[in-house]
Amino acid sequence: MKAYIISKYSKNENLQLVDMPKPDIGENEILVEIHATGINQLDNKLKYGEFKLLLPYKFPLILGHDFSGVVTKIGSKVNRFKVGDEVFARPADFHIGTFAEYIAVNENDVALKPQNLSMEEAASIPLVALTVWQAFVEKAKLEKDQKVFIQAGSGGVGIIAIQLAKYLGATVATTASASNFDLVKSLGADVVIDYKTQDFETILKDYDVVLNSQDERTLDKSLRILKPGGKVVSISGPPDTTFAKELNLSWFMKIIISFLSRKVRKQAKLHLVDYSFLFMQANGKQLSRIGKLIETDVIKPDVDKVFQFEEINEAMSYVASGHAKGKVVVKIR
Fold it and tell me: Tens digit of pLDDT for each residue in 5-17?
C-alpha cells in the first residue's frame, strides 16, 4: 500500500510517500480500505514533535487520526463488523496512521458510517466530534439551560461544539470573525462576539462551562467569566495531573505536568471554578451515538476543502495556517 510517513520530527520537511505492506490484523481488529482522512492540528503538532514526551512514537510514523472507509478483512473475534461495512473512526493513540491506503484498527474504536454522509464528510467527523462529546457529556456534564462559551466557533471543533451544545439545551456564546457570523448563527449560536474588535471578558459573565481551545491569555480570561462552580475544559493545554494519571506517565513527567498546570489550577481555585484538560480518546460506542445524531440532522459536518492524496502536504500546510473554516479532508480512494 501507499502511505505518507515522517522519519523524524520536523517543521519544515514534507511527509514522504512510500510503499509499505498492508498491516496485519489481530483477533479483535478489522482491516479498512481508507477512502478519506481528516487533517487535524494534532497531526502537525505530532510532526513538529510537540508531544514527543507524552506520545513517544517510533519512526517511520504514519500520521493521521480520522478516516472513513470499507472493511476488507476481520479478525477471528470481531463481532460488530463484517466485510463490506462502511465505517469511520478515530484510531487509538499509538495505533494511528490514516495517511495511508489501509489501516488495522480495533473494532471497539470504530462505528458504522452515517448513511447520509459521503466518505469525505464522514472522515471530517471522528476526532472533533469525540472531543466535543467527551468535553460536554463526559467532563462538563453540560445540562439544559446552562450557558456555555465555545471559542473559535467557525473552526472544526467549534462547528460541532455549537451544534451539540444546542442539542443538549444550552445557551451558546462563541467568538468568530465578522465574515463568519452568519455561519455560527446558523448553527445555533445565541451570542456571537467579534474576536477582532470585542473582548469576550467584558461581554460574558456567570457562564457554566467554557470549552477552551486557544492560548494561555484566553484561558485566563475564560476563568473570569465563569460563575462559582463553573468548569473550564481545555483541549489546548496545559495538561493537568489527572491527565498524567490517566496516561500512567512516569513520576518525572507527572512532576513536569504538575508544574506546567500550577498557575491555571491556582487561578481556578481562586475563582472557585474547576479546570480540566482533555486529550480525547478513541471510542466507537460514543462515535455510534454521534452517528445517530448525524443521521437525524442534529449534527451536520462542515468540510472546508477536499484535497487529493498526492496533495497531502498542501493540506497539512493549509491546516497549519489556521485559515480553514470547518474541516480539511484528503480523498484517498
Answer: 999 999 999 999 9
